[in-house]
Amino acid sequence: MQRIIRSFCLVVFLLGSKSIYAQQPALGCDDKAMRIQSQQLKHDFASQGLSVYKDAMISMESHQPFPVAVQLDKGKLYQLIFIGNRDAKKISMELFDGADKKIDERIIKKPKEQNFIVYSFTPEKTDMYLLVFTQIKGSKSMCGSFSIMQPGGEDAQQTSPATPANNKPATANPRYVPRKK
Question: Is-above-0.85 flag for pTM?
Answer without folding.
Answer: no
